[in-house]
Amino acid sequence: MRLLVDGIRRGWRDSNGSMTKTTVEAKILLVLNKQLGCNKNYKHYMNRMKSLRKEYNSYSELFRCSSGFGWDPITKRFTAPDEAWKEYFKLSSILREKAGLQDTKFISVEEMFAIFMLTVGQNSRYCLVKDTFKRSKFAISTSFNPVLEALLVIAPSQMVKPNGFVPMKI
């Protein structure tokens, strides 16, 4: 990663913003292979770039909505206003107490709920969610259904009853 950043700072990119195969092989891979004692080629480089792009897009997608949640690249932690965290943990505790949702051996209720919210709230595919949370598709799948079932249990008590008022514009 440092070699790529250094190459960008040195102006090794072409007019469309990417590095040519010749530049990568001569300036990036040559140094990388020497430093690590390996034999990476351009195909390895392209696969790594594809993975990094997917990871970047996953985080971008996660924070695209106006939920108030963000990502601090320095501390590598999620950020949000206190009110957003308060509501998130309040609903997580309701899922625990009233619906009986429990931590599994490897995933907490809060993470299961976040997985569910990303999947439903952002219409994200399991692959994107899997990459975001660094979990297997199986773990993502088995986290989703218990949260859905728990939400169905608490839904009647959490929904506002209609008062018969219909706004002029929807």
UniProtKB/TrEMBL annotation:
Pfam families: Myb_DNA-bind_3. PANTHER family: MYB_SANT-LIKE DOMAIN-CONTAINING PROTEIN, TRANSMEMBRANE PROTEIN. Coiled coil: none annotated. It comes from the Eukaryota. InterPro entries: At2g29880-like, Myb/SANT-like_dom. This is Myb/SANT-like domain-containing protein. Residues 2-88 form the Myb/SANT-like domain.
